[in-house]
Amino acid sequence: MQRSGQLHGLKVLDLSRTNIECLPGSVSNLEGLTSLLLKYCQTLSSVPSLKKLRALKRKGKHTTLS
Fold first, then answer.
1. Rounded to whole angstroms, how far apart are CA atoms 59 and 48?
2. pTM attached to this predicted model
3. In the predicted model, is pLDDT for residue 60 greater than 50?
4. Could you give the C-alpha distances from 59 to 1, 39, 62, 63, in angstroms and in order?
5. Burial, 51: exposed, middle or buried (Cβ in 10 Å; 0-12, 13-18, 19+)?
6. Pairwise CA distance, residues 7 & 31, whole Å
7. Residues 31, 11: Cα–Cα separation, whole Å
8. What whole-number distance in Å separates Cα of residue 18 and Cα of residue 8?
9. Which of 1, 9, 33, 58 is the 20 to 30 A CA-CA neighbour of 47?
10. 3-state SS of the chain?
11. What are the domain boundaries of the chain?
């Protein structure tokens, strides 16, 4: 994630079922991101502000941030 400029066109980021502990702040630079999947990330303890991710979609109980 350190080079998020190279991921400018990224629409979906699926980190589900990974051992990620902290979502880096640079994820907020992915302004075209429509889906951020974090299902079953049991070690995830920190998520930065996602206010800049205006394209991010949420749908009912199946939110993209579940």
1. 21
2. 0.75
3. no
4. 25, 14, 6, 5
5. exposed
6. 10
7. 9
8. 22
9. 9
10. CCCHHHHCCCCEEECCCCCCCECCHHHHHCCCCCEEECCCCCCCCECCCCCCCCCCCCCCCCCCCC
11. 1-58
Q: How far is CA 4 from CA 26, 52, 59, in A?
A: 6, 14, 26
Contacts of 10-13 spanning 24+ positions with Cβ under 8 A: 11/35, 12/37, 13/37
Q: Tell me the C-alpha distance between 31 and 53, whole Å.
A: 5
Query: Token match 């990620």: residue?
Result: 20
